[in-house]
Amino acid sequence: MSRAVPINPKLPRNFDNTRNEDRPASHQRWWNRPFIVTETIEQLEAWAAGRTDEYADKFRAETFPAWRANWLKAYPLGTRYEVRCLDGGAWDRSTSWGMFGTLDEAMRCAGAGPLRLFA
After folding, report:
1. Among residues 10, 14, 102, 118, which one has the fewest Cβ atoms lying within 10 Å of its Cβ?
2. What is the DSSP string of 55-108?
3. Minimal CA–CA distance to 109: which of 1, 9, 36, 10?
4. Which backbone phi and psi does 83 adopt, to 5 degrees?
5. Structural contact between residues 95 and 101, judged by C-beta atoms closer than 8 angstroms
């Protein structure tokens, strides 16, 4: 029986900032359990609009329009679905198994395992 794939789960504190050998018990249930994290174009736009650093205006005027266009080319529905898993592939965080333009694609990856770009 397969387990459901969590979408945007509430992860334990410091989940993506803890050496694997130092992980507390609260992290153990996430070993080898893929999950999906979503990010939307609206979140990306809000992040860009909220920047206040010295490069913010230049970024919004010169860089962000192309960044936004590339995002929508890769994720036409405006949402990116990233499959992640605490599998030891990174020493201090969960591993990205791939980023997808649809939930169906992400669910297939979660069931099949990480993308292998260079096999």
Report:
1. 118
2. THHHIIIIIHHHHHHHHHHHSTTSEEEEEEEBSSSSSSSPEEEEEESSHHHHHH
3. 36
4. -90, 125
5. no
Residue 118: the pLDDT is 53
Fill in the DSSP letter of residue 9: -
Q: How far apart are the first and last CA of the chain?
A: 29
Residue that is written with structure tokens 């992640």 in the block:
84
* Predicted pLDDT at 113: 84
79 Cβ contact partners less than 8 Å away, ≥ 6 residues apart: 38, 39, 40, 41, 101
- Chain center to CA of 52: 24
Spatial distance between the Cα atoms of 93 and 20, rounded to a whole number of angstroms = 8
Going by C-alpha positions, the residue among 88, 116, 112, 93 that lies closest to residue 32 is: 88
Tens-level pLDDT at each residue, the chain (119 residues): 356 999 999 999 999 999 999 999 999 999 999 999 999 999 999 999 999 999 999 999 999 999 999 999 999 999 999 999 999 999 999 999 999 999 999 999 999 888 765 55
